[in-house]
Amino acid sequence: MRAKRTEPPLMSEVLENLLDGYQVRPDPSPDACEAANLRMGLFTTMRDRGCPTKLAREVSRLKDGHRCESTHALESAMGWRALALGEAHHEVLVLAGQRGRGKSYAAAQVLAQMRPGSGCPRWANARHIGTWLFQRGHDVAVQRHLERISTAKLLVIDDLGWEHMDRGGYAQGAFVGIIDDRIQAELRTILTTNMGEAKFRERYGDALHDRVRGYGLWVDVEPGCSLR
Fold it and tell me: Rounded distance, CA 92 to CA 212, Å?
């Protein structure tokens, strides 16, 4: 026995099923537009300063009302910022600890709070700086990058310790020179690293370690819930 043939649904019924539950979004309010513009403006600023896309996006989300999770790294960075803006002998902040403790995010928050035009604050990854040091005599653009990070009012060097060091010690000496020159010029520098103090002293020498300790703040970021 053949099954009874059913009639195809009417077009009106198809449209009704497709549109069931669909809600037309109202035009965004002026406040929503302003928040979106602020978010995009901060994101663009952070990218212009060299901050990685992911971090720039996370920081800019705060303009939408997202709350920033408080961490030991963030509290330490904000406390250092208050001192560094008002006093000398706080030129350097070292955020040291294992991955996932919010060191880079804390540094990005400080960078985000630097107003446009305030000494061209910059972000640079240590591996990139190491590469630039080998190329600076052959590439004008690389030389400009190094000049920017050397003179920035605030410089974040992320992932210190991951840069390549040559056997002759040229890159190491140049890298130490950049940080030391900034301390001497009273320019603010934030270093994030997975190294402990003993490894830092072994890699960069007693002189830089003592100068960082004398003119800055070393923070061993406490363990907590991984942010990765």
Answer: 6
Q: What is the CA radius of gyration of the chain?
A: 25
Structural domains of the chain in order of their starting residue, each with its CATH number: 28-67 (no CATH), 70-220 (3.40.50.300)
Decide if 216 contacts 200 (C-beta within 8 A). no
pTM (two decimals): 0.81
Q: Using CA atoms, how far apart are residues 191 and 198, in angstroms rounded to an integer?
A: 16
Write out pLDDT tens, residues 20-74: 555 555 666 777 777 788 888 899 999 999 999 999 999 988 755 556 678 999 9
Side chain identity at 226, as an amino acid letter? S
> How many whole angstroms separate alpha carbon 164 and alpha carbon 167?
10
Residue identified by tokens 């978010």 is: 39
CB 97 within 8 A of CB 223: yes
Q: Count of CB atoms within 10 A of residue 1's CB?
A: 3
Among 145, 157, 219, 165, residue whose Cα is nearest residue 183: 157
- Measured at the CA of 110, the angle between CA 75 and CA 184, to 5 degrees, comes to 105
Please report, as a single letter, which amino acid is at residue 24: V
Q: Is 78 exposed, middle or buried (0-12, 13-18, 19+ CB in 10 A)?
A: middle
Do 216 and 92 touch, CB atoms closer than 8 A? Answer: yes
- What are the φ and ψ backbone dihedral angles of 158, each rounded to 5 degrees? -95, 145
What contacts 130, CB < 8 A, 6 or more positions away?
Answer: 163, 164, 165, 171, 175
